[in-house]
Q: What sequence folds into this?
């Protein structure tokens, strides 16, 4: 299984955003510390998801970065990604593990210790935990759990916990202190005037 970087970048495919431009800025800075999660909007076709994921895999390969595909595990397999990530409304972790195989990276979303432990027992390699803060990048999210929520999950599992949801570099020290292994971001990079500098700031906060 590939080593897991500490900074996860989730592609922002909302109108007016250019996920590949952000990725091209972040990759030379983060290299193998970057995990790129290809996430597309619900109304995107599988072909659109495939075309984006194929390009992301190729870019990541130049820098030894890891590419995962969110939700659409068949796309992950089709493009040769390192694995996938499943959310609360996607396939259960056990089913996702069967789809991806034993050696793939499998992330699962959790926000409380019980479901986190179940996901790990079912085969999750790491957990995306949150939302830590309020965020506008995804609709229908539950209330933020903050560092205390991250701490509760991290204490219950023995896999890396990646904090997500409105995370900025300023939040990172408290999240690491709560037991997070790394952080996942969307707007902190896709909305940055200088994504390369924002990447460096996040990596510095992570101690990378």
A:
């Amino acid at each position: 299984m590939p080593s897991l970087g500490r900074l996860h970048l989730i592609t922002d495919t909302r109108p007016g955003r250019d996920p590949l431009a952000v990725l091209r800025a972040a990759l030379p800075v983060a290299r193998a510390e970057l995990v790129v999660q290809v996430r597309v909007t619900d109304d995107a076709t599988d072909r659109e998801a495939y075309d984006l994921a194929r390009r992301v895999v190729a870019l990541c390969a130049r820098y030894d970065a890891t590419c995962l595909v969110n939700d659409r595990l068949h796309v992950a397999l089709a493009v040769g990604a390192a694995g996938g990530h499943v959310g609360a409304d996607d396939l259960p972790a056990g089913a996702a593990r069967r789809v991806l195989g034993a050696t793939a990276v499998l992330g699962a979303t959790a926000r409380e210790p019980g479901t986190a432990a179940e996901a790990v027992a079912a085969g999750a390699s790491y957990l995306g935990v949150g939302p830590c803060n309020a965020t506008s990048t995804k609709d229908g999210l539950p209330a933020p759990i903050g560092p205390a929520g991250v701490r509760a999950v991290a204490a219950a599992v023995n896999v890396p916990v990646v904090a997500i949801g409105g995370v900025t570099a300023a939040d990172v020290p408290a999240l690491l202190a709560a037991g997070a292994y790394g952080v996942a971001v969307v707007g902190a990079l896709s909305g940055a005037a200088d994504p390369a500098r924002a990447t460096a700031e996040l990596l510095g906060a992570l101690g990378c």
The chain has one domain: 7-206. The first strand starts at residue 7 and ends at 10. Residues 132 and 146 are 4 Å apart (CA to CA). The chain is about 40% helix and 15% strand.
